Each structure stands twice: as C-alpha cells, then as structure tokens.
Amino acid sequence: MFERITAKEDFARVYPIMAASFPETELRDEAGQRALLEREGYRLYGIKEADDGYFAVIAAWELAEDFVYLEHFAVAEGKRNGGIGGRLLEEFLAWYGKKAVLEVEVPEDVLTKRRVGFYERHGFYYNEYPYLQPPMRPGQGMLPLRLMTRPAPIQEEEYQRYRRLIYRQVYRYFGE
To answer: Where is the N-acetyltransferase domain positioned along the sequence (predicted)?
Structure first.
C-alpha cells in the first residue's frame, strides 16, 4: 500500500499533492523537496488506488532507532473528509512500529484546531513546548509551531532531544 518514492518521475506525481496541501512556509520548493530523495534517513511514500495514480503522500524521516518524524502527510483534496486520512495514518504508524513525532501549527483558528484535533483522535499528544521550525525556503523566517507525539506526551528532556535531531538532520540548522 505504501509505495516508496525514489524515482524522479514518481516524485513529480506526488509533489502536487504536497504543494496543494501545505503553505509555502511549511514546504520546500519542488527542487528542494526532490533533492531530499538523496538524503539519508528521508523516506517518501505515495499511496495509490489501483491504476488511478497517487492520492496521498507521507514524508518521514528515520532520525533515531526509537521514533519516526513525519514531515508531511497529505491526502489529495478530492479524497479528504471520508476517513481515509485517518485510516492511512493508523496503518502507516502500525506498519512503522515506532513512536511518532510531527509538527503542527499553534491552534489559533478553526482550521488549525481541526488539524490538531485530527492528530489527537489518532493518538497524538499536543506538547506546549515552544518550537520554531527553521525556514523551508530562502528568505523565510522561523515559524512558530508545536510538536505532537505519539503514543504519549513528552517531558522537556525528550522534547529537546527530538528538536535537536530534527533541526540538525532535517533542516541542517545548528542554531539553538
């Protein structure tokens, strides 16, 4: 079900799902995202129905033995709101068999609250520790987000470890 994307032509089929699902502040440009296919630890998975093409994508990082960092999870707009996203997320996390960490916006409006609620319904915990996402594109600033974790909330020491690994391996950001 989860097909690893390693070829540039398959990447070209899943990137539009990502681009339609995330604001520019939370997604690299196409060339920058495609370059990640060569990075150690980065895993991009496409999900498709028979021969209908890809309708969902999950970008994950294997940063440590004990957890997976979900950088992007998106379902094509025409397939949303039918429960498929939740099912895919549950299947992916069961298949991976590790703790999971992801970034979310601070829940300040209806959409961001719905997004946090979606992840909470699937076993994630919202952690209040202030977190700044390093820029995804040149010219952008740090973006205030929060980390959500599954299967449990985290203590500050674990938060600091996750943040440090994500900053260094995903963003190649070494400032603190």
So the answer is: 1-150
Q: CA dist 60 to 13, 37, 42, 82, 103, Å? A: 18, 11, 6, 23, 12
Helices (H) then strands (E): counts for the chain: 5, 8
Q: Are 57 and 44 in contact (CB under 8 A)?
A: yes
Specify the residue for token string 């630890």.
Answer: 41
Give CATH superfamily name and number for 2-170.
Gcn5-related N-acetyltransferase (GNAT) (3.40.630.30)
Take residue 128 and report the two structure tokens written for it.
């209040």
- Please name the helix (run of DSSP H) or strand (run of DSSP E) that holds residue 87, with its range, or none: helix 84-96
- How many CB atoms are located within 10 Å of the residue 132 CB? 14
Q: How many Å apart are CA 45 and CA 18, to the nearest integer?
A: 12
Tokens of 135: 């820029």
Contact 152, 125 (CB under 8 A): yes
Read off the pTM: 0.94
